[in-house]
Amino acid sequence: MPFTIPVPAPVPASDAATPVVSAFYDRFPYPGDPLQDGPPPGYNWRWCVDSAWAAAFGGLPSRPSSGPRSWRILDAGCGTGVSTDYLCHLNPGSSVLAVDISPGALEVASSRTRRSGAAAQVRELRIEQRSLLDLAGEGPFDYINSVGVLHHLRQPEAGLRALAGLLRPGGLLHLFLYADGGRWEIHRTQRALALLGAGTGDEGLRLGRQLLAELPETNRLRRHHEQRWALDTTADANFADMYLHPQETSYNLDRLMVFVAAAGLEFVGFSNPEVWDPARLLQGDLLERAQALSPRDQWTLVEELDPDISHFEFFLSQGAVCLPDWGSDAALLAARAEVNRCLWGWPSTSLMGPDLMPLSLSAEGLSLMRALEAAPELAIDELPLDWPLAQRLAVARQLLEQRVLLPVL
């Protein structure tokens, strides 16, 4: 399979922060996940395009008569290749372009994907030292993944416009951006280290760890770090990325929506929707009042009630999204469907679901999904199951809710 490894070369400084950010990630290649032989552990459904597509659009496009769907995927700001590795293994037969501005991070990404066998999973894998702002002529892509990248540009708006121009009409863009609320303590720690002249290198790393270890045990910044982030920042690269980064922007919900609209994109939904469900925080009369609000106001309420939300992760699309009505009995019965590939333990009634949480299927649910696997060309009402239509509908709707069944549009 074609596999291009990065060749260090000057990267056009399309964003003012590019040289300093590139140098930072050369010192601290991020993320600091260890390398291993063989496929990456588990899965992340947001990097399985079939799963992400169904979550965003309510179903999947038809696929070729044999083999998986072949997607054109861009990993914009791939760092040390953790996301690239998953994108290859979770989307066999696809074409993947992974870019980053840091040759140091890309060297790790190349080693990671080589050791995991990522290139053998896809039609093409290219890993290149390029800015996401300098990819003219590479699109259009079906799916763009850009996690933790745009908020490190001096002009994030230009970055989002560039990605929008690379996305095909009807395509899907997955973003991860910092949120103001849950980074209050992080921002104060960053500013304190700047005042102490810590810098963004090894000395800053030493001083940052010393500061958070020597502040009084009752200090809010120390407690927050120890309770929330100590494990995540065990690797030096992860600590540096959190507390020493030379360029960072964060958002609240209102500014996020303005940011998205300015690029001419549509907000499709959060890729961690459970975080934005008021039922996570409220009950009884308060929950009823919250659920009477518009979705946007529900999200605002959650943002106000949960100051620990440290990031936004969400899907965007070109053009308005019209979701299918699976509440219609006729539509659901006439639909073909597939098994979500982001399951652990399939086929079984005891699984790990898309979010790597325990999931139990009914015996009927397992039977319906096995019937779909055996006859993918048949609609739900055509499957050779000796069930009344009401039972088919009830079982199919439960599987939809559990995100095990992915309808084909």
Describe the structure.
The chain has 409 residues and is of the alpha/beta class. It has three domains: 3-180 and 250-317, Rossmann fold (3-Layer(aba) Sandwich), CATH 3.40.50; 181-243; 329-408. It has helices at 18-27, 49-57, 82-90, 103-116, 156-166, 184-195, 202-214, 220-229, 236-243, 253-262, 284-291, 295-305, 329-333, 363-374, 389-401; strands at residues 3-4, 72-76, 95-100, 124-129, 141-147, 167-178, 266-270, 311-317, 336-339, 350-352, 358-360, 405-408. The strands form three sheets. It has an eight-stranded mixed sheet, sandwiched between helices. It has a two-stranded antiparallel ribbon with strand order 9-12. Strand 5 (141-147), helix 5 and strand 6 (167-178) form a beta-alpha-beta unit. It is globular, with a radius of gyration of 23 Å. The two termini are 31 Å apart. Mean pLDDT is 94; it is low at 6-11.
CATH-scheme architecture of the largest domain = 3-Layer(aba) Sandwich
Proportion of helical residues = 25-40%
Fraction in beta strands: 15-25%
In DSSP terms, counting alpha (H) and pi (I) runs of 4 or more, how many helices? 15
CATH superfamily of the largest domain: Vaccinia Virus protein VP39
| Largest beta sheet: strand ordering | 1-4-3-2-5-6-8-7
